[in-house]
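Let's practice the habit of predicting before peeking. Look at the sequence and jot down your guess about where helices and strands might fall. Then scroll down.
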Amino acid sequence: MTDIMKDIIAAVIDGEPGPVTTAVSAALEAGEDPESILNDGLTAGMTAVGEMLDQGEIFIPDVLWAAEAMQEGLAVLLPHLAHGVSRSAGTVVIGTVQGDVHDIGKNLVGLMLSGAGFEVRDLGHDVAPEAFVDSVAHNGAGLLGMSAMLTTTMPAMTRTLELLRARGMREKVHVLVGGAPVTQGYADKIGADGWAIDATRAVVVAKELA
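Done guessing? Here is the structure:
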């Protein structure tokens, strides 16, 4: 790994937009491949951030700052990726299910998925099954992520899966579920493709399913 890539990774981890954009610009001026800057610099930085969160070395605010800094660097890089280079790991629709307004965890998952190269369509909270399914169809998403923080709202996940089947879309999209009361057993019971206990694991599972 080149020193300039190490600089990008370090800047992302520090969560400082200025140093990130400076390092990305320097990498471009040095002739580094834009796709390499994305994968070996920005995305690698967010991967490191996720690992540090998982190990308790940093906390959620640090991840949010890192994700915002990474997005600033990506804004500098995007014009150079437009010529035949695809940055997307796939499109994912995410949201907190109907009846549930908790979205801090879901927001963190969205930021980390974006940092991992996914095109994220965040529908927010209190999302009806119809809205999930319509968005999957409209965006051609290959992955749907649903979050629930209340046991009383978990059945909305089942209803969404049933609607996907009713519309003949179930085989076209992988479904990932999570949230404090959601378990692997529940994911298996309702027929979801994956379950994640936290944002770091959500990115790992999303990459496996993509």
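How did you do? The chain has two domains: 3-81, 91-209.
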